[in-house]
């Protein structure tokens, strides 16, 4: 697909999203509407929104394709016809804080606290729930919980530190106007697990080799290590590295870490003779659907939903 086809596809996605909304719009029904970027986003947002809506109300989420298309749909709306609080827009922050981009600030526009909404899933609280609900690991005592938490947090820290230079290189490319497909960079290329601990493969222990792999995968030039170190310092100054790791990379780590802990549970919790049987094969395809319903709604998102959808419903209920 050449650049003309890419831009045409993006434009078509925006048109389709806008037309789908107009087709789905039911002014008198108890429905609120949301516009999201990609196909995985509804897995997160639907649960968060449904959990805060009153009975009989439901949400319709429309996939727009990417952040720019979400903005285009917003700009195309006839706001004299549609109540703003009833139509909300949800986008990822990604690396925009480090780029010279227009800052959008609208009452009914939610921008994630971290790189993406997926980042909100990668914490030990979610891991505990997934281990219990999906992997059958229940009733852990405090010592066992601490052992698993330490294992998870150590591995998460190692993963973030190893991937941060790659994210720094990605930001350098974006600042230079080089459009790269981040899906072409697969974090599993870098890592292996040994006794539930994540480790870099021998060939990728060098930061330079990790960058070389990423550059080769997206056909973009490598930057000097001094440039990459400078950008990493920018990440650290603004609330830390983890906040700016691509969410899909973190989700890959999270799924693998959970599966490794499940496999190793007899050694971590002696009362298990073997790892409990798993009835769902947690993987990259179904990961969002399985994990998302078990993630706590971020405070910023809850406040946003209360100020928009919930406020709108209260207004129309009183008016009726």
Please tell me about this protein's structure.
The protein has 320 residues and is of the alpha/beta class. It is 50% helix and 9% strand. The longest helix has 34 residues, at 142-175. It contains ten helices and six strands; from the N terminus they run αβαβαββααββααααα. Helix 5 crosses helix 6 (207-218), helix 5 (142-175) packs across helix 7 (225-237) and helix 5 (142-175) runs antiparallel to helix 8. The model is unreliable at 1-11 (pLDDT under 50). The chain is globular, with a radius of gyration of 21 Å. The strands form two sheets. Strands 2-1-3-4 form a four-stranded parallel beta sheet, with helices on both faces.
- Uncertain residue segments: 1-11
| Count of DSSP strands | 6
Radius of gyration: 21 Å
Query: What best-fitting shape do the alpha-carbon axes yield?
Result: globular
Helix content percent band: 40-55%
**Beta fraction:** 5-15%
User: Order of SSEs, N→C?
Assistant: HEHEHEEHHEEHHHHH
Tell me the number of helical segments per DSSP (H or I, 4 or more residues long). Answer: 10
Tell me the span between the first and last alpha carbons. 52 Å
- Please state the structural category: alpha/beta
Identify the strand order in the major beta sheet: 2-1-3-4
Largest sheet: 4 strands, parallel
Mean pLDDT: 91
């Amino acid at each position: 697909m050449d650049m003309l086809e890419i831009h045409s596809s993006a434009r078509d996605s925006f048109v389709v999203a806008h037309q789908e909304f107009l087709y789905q719009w039911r002014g008198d029904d108890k429905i609120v509407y949301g516009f999201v970027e990609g196909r995985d986003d509804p897995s997160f947002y639907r649960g968060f929104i449904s959990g805060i809506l009153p009975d009989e109300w439901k949400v319709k989420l429309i996939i727009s394709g990417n952040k720019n298309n979400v903005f285009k749909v917003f700009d195309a709306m006839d706001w004299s016809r549609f109540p703003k609080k009833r139509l909300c827009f949800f986008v990822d922050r990604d690396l925009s804080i480090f780029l010279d981009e227009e800052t959008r600030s609208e009452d009914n526009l939610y921008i994630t606290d971290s790189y993406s909404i997926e980042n909100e899933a990668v914490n030990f609280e979610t891991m505990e729930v997934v281990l219990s609900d999906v992997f059958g690991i229940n009733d852990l005592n405090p010592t066992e919980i601490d052992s698993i938490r330490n294992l998870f947090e150590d591995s998460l820290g190692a993963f973030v530190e190893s991937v941060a230079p790659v994210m720094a290189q990605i930001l350098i490319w974006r600042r230079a106007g080089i459009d790269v497909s981040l899906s072409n960079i697969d974090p599993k290329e870098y890592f292996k697990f040994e006794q539930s601990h994540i480790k870099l493969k021998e060939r990728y222990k060098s930061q330079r080799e990790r960058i070389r792999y990423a550059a080769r995968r997206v056909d973009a030039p490598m930057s000097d290590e001094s440039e990459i170190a400078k950008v990493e310092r920018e990440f650290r100054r603004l609330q830390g590295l983890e906040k700016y790791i691509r969410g899909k990379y973190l989700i890959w780590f999270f799924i693998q870490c959970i599966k490794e802990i499940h496999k190793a549970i007899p050694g971590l919790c002696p009362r298990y003779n073997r790892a409990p049987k798993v009835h769902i094969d947690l993987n990259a395809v179904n990961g969002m659907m399985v994990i998302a319903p078990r993630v706590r709604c971020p405070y910023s998102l809850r406040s946003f939903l209360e100020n928009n959808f919930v406020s709108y419903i209260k207004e129309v209920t009183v008016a009726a």
